[in-house]
Amino acid sequence: MNFKLPFLAAAALLLNACTNEATGQLGRNIPLKTTVDSVSYGVGTDVGRNLQMNLKQAGMDSLNMDALFAGMRDAIDSNERIHSDAVKSMVQAYMLEVQKKLMAQQAGKDSLNLIEGRAFLAKNGQRPEVVTTASGLQYEVLQQGTGPRPTADETVSVNYRGTLINGKQFDSSYDRGQPAQFPVNAVIPGWTEALQLMPVGSRWKLYIPSELAYGQHGAGADIPGNSALIFEVELLDIVKK
């Protein structure tokens, strides 16, 4: 986690100002009567959201809030019980352990994705309408065109919809209302292979193993590592060489 001193200082000052000594409810009962009250509250909610987001991104799903507030107050009073150098080392060591746990959890999920993907493709490949190539790519002809087949150095225009094997959609040119254009050799290997087999005017369903898609790293938040993918692809035209 990247602790920014100005941010933490603002949070500490805000929490200190909002603490209700009479009730001990950390400002929950403070009325918002003036503009300054409302602005102060707004700043507090912004600080809280940012702190929560930073903690979540760092993999820290819980903290001892009493200790957190005590540390803020002690910092304001210049009465820290743990020296700042020791705090820095302690936090870094703790975060390292958190990251190790997160990486182990993600590795387990990726392994499960690989197993589930291979099982899905093995079963899917038994259907008579599905063709499996030597690379492991699977395709199903929904509509066979009569135009030319593109080569690797040509650019094509396509409509497509992509989903995970559980049916969750992660991309669609149909939803954007506009076909996509790209060189045949500039996409994932499963697409590059399939497009060179498709005559223009075809609409195929592709079942792509993770090795021919985004592999163990996945793609962004929507495509986890080792995911097999399903695409419905409509080859509209060959745009240019």
**Sheet with the most strands?**
7 strands, antiparallel
Low-confidence stretches: 1-25
Tell me which oligomeric state these chains represent. single chain
Note the beta-strand portion: 15-25%
Give an account of the 3D structure.
The protein is α+β, with helices and mostly antiparallel strands and 241 residues long. A hairpin with a 5-residue loop joins strand 1 and strand 2. It is built from 6 helices and 7 strands, in the order H-H-H-H-E-E-E-E-H-E-H-E-E. The chain has 2 domains: 77 residues, no CATH class; 131 residues, Roll (Chitinase A, domain 3). Strands 1, 2, 3, 4, 5, 6 and 7 form a 7-stranded antiparallel sheet that branches.
Structure keywords:
241 residues; alpha+beta; Chitinase A, domain 3; 2 domains; 7-stranded antiparallel beta sheet; 6 helices; 7 strands; disordered N terminus
Quick overview of this protein structure:
This protein is of the alpha+beta class and 241 residues long. It contains six helices and seven strands. It has two domains: 5-81, no CATH class; 110-240, Chitinase A, domain 3 (Roll).
